[in-house]
Specification:
With about 400 residues, this protein is an alpha+beta fold. The chain is about 55% helix and about 10% strand. The chain has one domain: Cytochrome p450 (Orthogonal Bundle). It is built from 16 helices and 12 strands. Bound molecules: protoporphyrin IX containing FE. Protoporphyrin IX containing FE (HEM) binds next to helix 12 and helix 16.
């Protein structure tokens, strides 16, 4: 067979597999749970995925180079290995982004912001464009203290930088993302400088960072604050928007679940809505998994029948989407259940680099969805407009209608 036609068959198999990840993962979990092909390894079972993500010394993050291009200098903590610098930066930002803010500050802000948007939407809303992108952008404005030079462009900038950092190389995405990064850096420089002239007017993440700077805390120069804010903005906006759309799209595709989800929304049962979020994302994953690079030869599942050596230099995909469907660990994985224990979910990663925003996510995403779910007569618009339209990995348009 000619090399060209062989390549096109391989490409077609790859494209088919990407469109049918759930069945592919199901077969792999039983037949070849740790698949090693040259310098690529795919890990599909729950325990093995957690083993990879827990061994951050062996399976290392790979984002440094791109991160340094986005900041035009220093790395951001997601791109760092487990170093003293990582601990310093994460600890500093945890002092500024506090779990204590969830209940009194973040939850009411998101509730108000989402319900105000719904109140003026007159029976029809473009969910990603008019709601799910806007709420996290406004939260970043209010809580982080950086509202952006223009909401839509700010959200676009965060989205393109995210795509550049976490998806395969694409020259066009890179060009857009690096231009967005330059614009975001100079915007943040201006905001930080302006804030330093007007201290004590706000209680937000930026003001708290400046207070830490006042006290001489290492890792809190203007440039450090800018780098940390860039990383958080990128992590916060496109992810939240996509997860809220995935949750709502899934629930609208399940007429058997929708009435109860709507009843939970109308009762403001936020804890139950968080369970709806976590379970919906198991069926509509944010991403198939998390990438790592093997720094050493390492045997995953050592001592078990499935033990497999991953060679040094291999690119590893820890398939969290597959892990959360692993029947060895997850009871009746094909069933939608609201009583699963929290540890069975890995939407926000696992181990050292577990999402910095994980607790914000559990509060923000269900509350955005709640504002939509409360509406009576909720339905997709007819035709293509009623189906989620994406630009690359992120939803951009999706029309939903309601009666009141
Ligand atoms: C809303 C949906 C979100 C999802 C699905 C999500 C997902 C993730 C995942 C899977 C990781 C681990 C990456 C890895 O191990 O390579 C991660 C890390 C991270 N996320 Fe999120 N994230 C979300 C929202 C947020 C928000 C709101 C913020 C900021 C407030 C944020 C900031 C971060 C940061 C800074 C890290 C790196 C943590 C570290 O290195 O210790 N994320 N996120």
């Amino acid at each position: 067979m000619a090399a060209d036609s062989q390549n096109s068959i391989v490409d077609r198999i790859k494209a088919w597999a990407l469109d049918h990840l759930d069945p592919v993962f199901r077969v792999l979990r039983w037949v070849k749970p740790i698949l090693v092909l040259n310098d690529f390894a795919l890990v599909t079972r729950f325990d093995h995925v957690q083993e990879v993500l827990a061994r951050d010394d062996i399976f290392q993050v790979t984002y440094r180079e791109k991160m340094e291009r986005v900041t035009a200098g220093e790395n951001f903590f997601l791109g760092m290995q487990n170093t003293p610098r990582y601990t310093r930066d994460v600890s500093n930002m945890r002092l500024a982004v506090r779990r204590d803010d969830l209940e009194g500050r973040i939850a009411p802000f998101v509730d108000d912001c989402a319900s105000q948007i719904m109140a003026v939407s007159q029976g029809r809303i473009d969910v990603p464009w008019q709601l799910t992108r806007l709420v996290p952008t406004r939260l970043v404005g209010d809580y982080f203290g950086v509202p952006g030079w223009n909401e839509a462009e700010f959200a676009d900038a965060a989205t393109s930088m995210f795509q550049y950092l976490f998806y395969p190389d694409d020259p066009q995405v890179e060009e857009t993302a690096l231009a967005a990064a330059a614009k975001t850096r100079s915007y943040l420089d201006e905001v930080i400088a302006e804030r330093k002239q007007n201290r004590g007017q706000h209680d937000d993440v930026l003001e708290r960072c400046l207070k830490m700077q006042d006290s001489g805390l290492p890792g809190m120069t203007d440039l450090d604050i800018r780098n940390n804010l860039i990383g958080l903005i990128i992590g916060a906006i496109p992810t939240t928007s996509k997860c809220a759309v995935l949750m709502l799209d899934y629930l609208l595709s399940r007429p058997d679940l929708l009435p109860d989800a709507q009843a939970a929304a109308r009762a403001d049962n936020d804890a139950l809505l968080t369970q709806y979020l976590l379970e919906s994302l198991r069926f509509r994953a944010f991403a198939p998994g998390i990438g790592r690079l093997a720094a050493e030869d390492y045997v995953v599942g050592k001592g078990s029948l499935r033990a497999t050596k991953i060679p040094k230099g291999a690119h590893v995909l820890a398939a969290t989407q597959s892990a959360m469907m692993d029947g060895c660990k997850i009871k009746s994985p094909g069933q939608f259940r609201l009583d699963r224990p929290d540890y069975q979910y890995m939407h926000f990663g696992y181990g050292l680099h577990t999402c910095f925003g994980q607790y914000i996510n559990r509060v923000q995403i269900p509350r955005i969805a709640k504002a939509v779910l409360k509406r009576k007569g909720l339905r997709r618009a007819v035709g293509d407009a009623g189906q989620v339209q994406s630009d690359g990995p992120f939803p951009v348009h999706w029309m939903v209608e309601f009666d009141e």
